[in-house]
Structure prediction request, 53 residues.
Amino acid sequence: MNEDDLTLLERAVYVLDSDSDIMQSIEQSDEDIKQGKVYTTDEVIEQIREGKL
Prediction:
């Protein structure tokens, strides 16, 4: 990883950390994973098509 990559990574982390909606989504995802609530890509696509997501 070079200095430019690190700067880009740091900026990405800053943006993610400063967006409360993204942080809430990440925290909810972590909880879902801990509780065994995981979905395949196909399941998520199906839920989107059905208007559930």
